[in-house]
Amino acid sequence: MLQKPLIGIRWKSLLAPWQEIDWLLLALSVSLTCLGGLMIRSTELNEGLTDWWSHWAVGGVGLVLALLIARSRYELLLQWHWIIYGITNFCLVAVMFIGTTANGAQRWISIAGFQIQPSELAKIGIIITLAAILHTQPTSTLSGVFRVLAVAAIPWIFVFLEPNLGTSLVFGAITMGMLYWANVNPGWLLLLASPIISAILFSVFLPAWFIWVGGMAVVGWRSFPYPWSGALGALALNLVSGTLGNFFWNLLKDYQKDRLTLFLDPDKDPLGGGYHLIQSRIAIGAGQMWGSGLYQGSQTQLSFIPEQHTDFIFSAIGEELGFVGCLCVLFTFWLLCLRLVIIAQNAKDNFGSLLAIGVLSMIVFQAVINIGMNIGLAPITGIPLPFLSYARWSLLSNFIGIGLVESVANYRHRLRF
C-alpha cells in the first residue's frame, strides 16, 4: 500500500531541481530536433551518410547541457559576464590565426580532432553580456545606447571578417531585439537600421531612396530632444550610407554578392548561384498539400539540392511532408517563441527577462531568414534552421540558450498561498 506513494515521493525529489522549468518549451525544442534528424536522414538516404545520428547525438548533449544550466542560478552570470565577453572575443581572434578554412571561410578551430566553431557560441556570449549591461545601463540616453552598440560591435567585426555574413546578421538581430525590450526609443532603432536599407535602395531604386531619406529625416525630427539636430543627423547618415554602399559592397566576397542578389531573379544563373533556390522552390511546390511521404520526395532522394541537410532542410520538409507539414513546423516555432515571451514577461528581474528576449531574437531571426531563403523571399545567407538543420555547433548553442531561459523560468518568484 505504501509503495506507490514512496515512488511518487522519489520522483518528486528527483525532479525537484527542475520543478519550475517550462517543460513545454523543452519538449518543443526536442521535437524539432527529432524531426530534424528524420529529415536529415531522408536527404542522405541514398548517399550512405549518417549525419542524422550525429544530429541526434549533439541534440542529446545539448539537452543534457540545457538541463544542467536550468538547475543553476542564472544570476551568477552577472559576476562573470565580462570574463565571458573576453573569452568570446579571444576565441574569435584565435580563429583568424589558427582557424581552419572550409568553403572559403575560416570559422573553425581544431582541438584534439574536434572542430569548434566559436562564432556560434559567441551568440550566447553576446546575449549574456548585453543582458548584463542593459540590466543596469539606462537606455534613455544616446550614450547608453552607443555603449551597448560598441560592446556588440567588437565580436560582430571579428565574425564578419571570417567571413561569416549570416552569423554577423544574427548578432545584429540579437542586439536590436534586446535594445527594443530594454525600452530604447523605437525611432532610434529605426535609424540604426536605416543605413543598410538606404545603401540597398540607393543601388536598386533611386526614387525610393529619396523617399526613404526624407522619411528618416522626419523620424530624426520626432525622436530626438533637439528636432533640427536629429533631422539633420538622420539626413546626413542616410546620404552618406547611400553613397558608401558601393564601397561596402566591394568588401563582400563574390559568393556573398551572389547570395544577396540572385534571390531576386535566380534564373539569371540557373546552373550556378541560382541553382539552389530554383531546386528548393521546385521541391516545396512538388509537396503540394500532404507531401509525397517520408523518404519519397523525388528532388530530395535524387539529390537535386546540394547540401540539402544544412541550409535547405526546409525544402525537404516541404516536399515530403507537404503544406500541412510546413504549417506544423511553423506552428511549433510560433509556440516555442510564445513560451519564450511568456518567460521573459514573468522573469523576476530585468537580467532574466533580457536573456529570454536575446534567445528569442536569435531563434526568430534564424528561422525567418532560413525559411525565407528556401522559398525565395530572402537572400541565401548560410543561416541554419534552428534545431532542424545539420549544424552541430548551431544546435548546441540553441540548446544552451534554451537552458538559460529555463533557468530564468526555474528561479522566477511564484506566489504561494
Can you walk through the features of this model?
The protein is built from 17 helices and 3 strands. It has a domain of 276 residues. Helix 5 runs parallel beside helix 17 and helix 6 packs antiparallel against helix 7. The protein has 417 residues and is mainly α. 70% of the residues lie in helices and 3% in strands.
Question: Counting H and I runs of at least 4 residues, what is the number of helices?
Answer: 17
**How many β-strand runs?**
3
Whole-angstrom Rg: 23 Å
Please identify the structural class as seen in this structure.
Answer: mainly alpha
For the report, how would you describe the main beta sheet?
3 strands, antiparallel
Give the strand content.
under 5%
Helical content, roughly?
55-70%
Order of helices and strands: HHHHEEEHHHHHHHHHHHHH
The main sheet orders its strands as 1-2-3
Low-confidence stretches: none
What overall geometry do the principal axes of the alpha carbons give?
A: globular
**Oligomer description:** single chain
- Report how far the terminal alpha carbons are from each other: 31 Å
SSE topology sketch:
Blueprint: H1 3-15, H2 23-43, H3 51-70, H4 81-98, E1 100-102, E2 105-111, E3 114-116, H5 118-136, H6 142-160, H7 165-181, H8 186-204, H9 206-223, H10 227-243, H11 245-249, H12 254-261, H13 275-287, H14 298-301, H15 313-346, H16 350-375, H17 392-410
Antiparallel strand pairs: 1-2, 2-3
Helix pairs in contact: 2-3, 2-15, 2-17, 3-17, 4-5, 4-6, 5-6, 5-7, 5-16, 5-17, 6-7, 7-16, 8-9, 8-10, 9-10, 13-15, 15-16, 15-17, 16-17
